[in-house]
Amino acid sequence: MSEDREKKINEYIQRDPFARLLGAKVEILKPGHSRVTLTVTDDMVNFHGNTHGGVIFALGDMAFAAAGNSHGQTAVALNVGINFLKATNSGDRLIAEATEQTASGPIALYDITIRDDRTGELVAKSQDLVYRKKEWFVPKSN
After folding, report:
1. Mean pLDDT computed over 102-118
2. In angstroms, rounded to a whole number, what is the distance separating the alpha carbons of residues 93 and 88?
3. How many C-beta atoms surround the C-beta of residue 121 within 10 A?
4. Which domains does the chain have, with CATH numbers?
5. How far apart, in whole angstroms, are the C-alpha atoms of residue 40 and residue 47?
6. Shortest CA distance to 66 belongs to which of 140, 122, 4, 130?
7. I need a labelling partner for 56 at 20 to 30 A (CA). Which of 31, 79, 89, 121 fits?
8. Which residues 6+ apart lie within 8 Å of 38 measured at CB?
9. Mind listing the pLDDT tens digit for each residue in 71-89?
10. Which residues contact 103 (CB under 8 A, 6 or more apart)?
11. pLDDT tens digits along 45-70
């Protein structure tokens, strides 16, 4: 993949308004892989004072979306299943990594991990399926 094409894909994915709203940042984006970070704020906790599961899910989903679309082809989620493994709190920095495991035709499987940046502990894990449409938001070079 050309450097110019990778740059266009990155710019496209960086425009995610929901990620911006949450303060999430796509720090690594390359074909089949992404890393997204987020610092939990006081507005992101539940009534127990722990990070809301929806925030953790959203962070993993952003990493999944970035990695799934990292080839420049429009990709949408088919299935997302998440396991919550450790509670986190306001002030914690979370890192979501998504890695393409296999791709067959328009379907690809991704492994997503969400970790506490300070301790390295696994906060949540998910395996997600993406469907790649016959649309390219950054077309392949001929």
Report:
1. 97
2. 9
3. 11
4. 3-136 (3.10.129.10)
5. 15
6. 130
7. 31
8. 22, 23, 24, 25, 55, 59, 93, 94, 96
9. 999 999 999 999 999 999 9
10. 32, 109
11. 999 999 999 999 999 999 999 999 99
